[in-house]
Structure formats: structure tokens, C-alpha cells
Amino acid sequence: MSELYESKISTARWMVYDIAGNAGWILYFIMLYRHFFDMTGLMRILTAIPAICMAIGIIELISERFAKLDWILPKRRLYRGFGALTAGGLLGMVVSVSVYLQEQEHVYGWLFIGAALCALFAGLLFREYRPIQDKS
After folding, report:
1. Residue 1, SS3 per DSSP
2. Which residues are CB-neighbours of 30 under 8 A, at least 6 positions away?
3. In terms of CB atoms within 10 Å, which end of the chain has fewer, N or C?
């Protein structure tokens, strides 16, 4: 059996973190969608990689909701969900700042804000999970 992790976060805090994190990845996706074909080939690839990580996390979290696994997760699901969202957000921050310094276009500032919100709040949720101690 895989190691289980549990969050004891309050529902109110969960909702605040969840809404702010969702706002982040949604902003990132909207700005990427609106400006994707204005970017050069390399910039498209660099900005799409964090979006792919975020999408993996989103899909995993949706499947966890359907399976009613919100508060207790196997280790691999925890990392595939909140881990991928946090990593995608962090990578999105690095990419958007790096590209902004090269291109000086404001879309990369918006991508940074979205990625930062995603990384921060998915990361805060990720940190709330602790291994469940086996009582046997």
C-alpha cells in the first residue's frame, strides 16, 4: 500500500487558498492563450511547459475530487496534483521573468502574476499534507 498523506486544514483556509490558486492558473492560461501566437517559437515552448505541468495538476485534482480524496491522498496523487501545480507555478515564474527581461512585453508580467499565485497557494496547500502515522 502506498504512503498516505492527510491535511487537517480548515475548510475556510482551504477555500481561500483554492480560489487564489485557481485564479493564478486561470490567469496564466488566459494570458498564454491570448498571446501564444504573438510569441516566437522558443517563447511558446518555454511558456507552454509550465502550463502543461499546471494542467497535469489540475487534471489530477479534478480526479481526486471525483474520488472524494480531498483530505487524504496517496503520496503519488499528492505530488501529481499539488506538486505539479506548485512546480508549474514556480517554473512559470522563472520563465516569465526570464522572458520579460529579454522581450520587455507586459504579457510576461501577467504570466508571472498568474504563475506566482498558482505556486504560492498550491504550495501552501501542498505543505499542509502530512504523512499519516501507522498505528499498528
Report:
1. coil
2. 114
3. C
